[in-house]
Amino acid sequence: MVSEPEILDELRRLRARVPQLTGALTAGVDGLVLAHDTPGVEAEVVAALTAAALGVAVRMADTTGQGDFRELLVRGVYGYVATYAAGESAVLTLLAQDRVNVGRLHLEGRRAGARIGELVDAWEAKAREAKAAAEPPVRAPAKPPAKAPVRTPAKPPIVRTRSARGSASTNARTTTES
Predict the structure, then answer these.
(1) Which of 30, 36, 77, 141 could share a disulfide with 43, CB 3.0–4.6 Å?
(2) How do residues 29-63 score in pLDDT, each as one tens digit?
(3) Strands 33-37, 21-28: parallel, antiparallel or unpaired by DSSP?
(4) Which DSSP category does 141 fall into?
(5) Is the pTM of this model over 0.85?
(6) Which residue stretches of the chain are H helix?
(7) For residues 34, 60, 20 and 3, what is the CA-based torsion angle, rounded to 10 degrees?
């Protein structure tokens, strides 16, 4: 996937700017970890739970007409879990102490999410281009040679004639007067 050191550097810079952060990770929307700086926390578990919470948050935003997902904030007794959109296919999840300035958390989290999203989206675009260049060009399947149409002998035309029809109440017998 995307270069882990670049994302990891961004996570570490983020933790330096917001000292109350206790962990940060970037994951794909499918729940796979891209990079993490989460001492004492199992990154794979947090990424999987983030993907599950993301599914609910996306559906909630859509159902209520609030538009595309941007962020999710969970507050617990001991602190916060904040998840931010990071491009089209990744999310940034931050773990913070209860005493964090939530406004600062949002400001820095949104900025970092945007930068990480640019990294991930650029990598995915390059991967798509490389894949397209490596694949042989798609050719239309060869058409079989056209067959001459099979001609069947013509049937003789059916000749139909019209006959006068009388009303349903007329008698089929005719009488002649002498």
Answers:
(1) 36
(2) 999 999 999 999 999 999 999 999 999 999 999 99
(3) antiparallel
(4) P
(5) no
(6) 4-17, 43-63, 102-134
(7) 10
